Amino acid sequence: MTFPKQIRNLIEAFERLPGVGAKTAERLAFYLLHVPETEIKKFGEAVLGLKEGIKYCSVCKNITDSEICAICSDSARDMATICVVESALDVFSLEKLGKYHGRYHVLHGVINPLANIGPEELYIDALLE
Questions:
Q1: pTM over 0.90
Q2: 5, 53, 85, 119: which is deepest, by most CB within 10 A?
Q3: Which contiguous run of DSSP H or E holds residue 47?
Q4: Which string of b and e fits 104-117 if b means at least 16 CB within 10 Å?
């Protein structure tokens, strides 16, 4: 017996997320069957809002909801030190530690010749500016 099409589609969508396998995707899909429709709508709006409301800081390429992120706007930061990181998640992880007080530059990836990802696919030029 196979799942109805709507459940299969949702399971497949969840499986495309990193770290979500078939069993977890099934559990999430069946969990959502019992969630009130208002909560499902809030969830969907939150996912859509992620793409609509988040942009890259014009200075460091960190994620933000404004033109310049809070870190780049902070005059108390050490402007002479830049920590280059792979992803915005790295910035948040380092900030949780509370030990680094410089600025960041987010590349949004790593150079990977096997995947045809070179410096031009990353934000390296913005770092040099």
A1: no
A2: 85
A3: helix 37-53
A4: bbbbeeeeeeeeee
- Among 123, 117, 118, 128, which Cα is nearest to 62's? 123
Cα separation of 29 and 10, whole Å? 6
Q: How do residues 46-88 score in pLDDT, each as one tens digit? A: 999 998 889 999 999 999 999 999 999 999 999 999 999 999 9
* Six-digit token string for 37: 């429709």
Domains located in the chain, CATH noted? 5-53 (1.10.8.420), 55-128 (3.40.1360.10)
Ramachandran assignment for 55, one of left (phi > 0), alpha (psi -120 to 50 degrees), beta (any other): beta
* Distant-in-sequence contacts of 45-50, Cβ < 8 A, 24+ apart: none
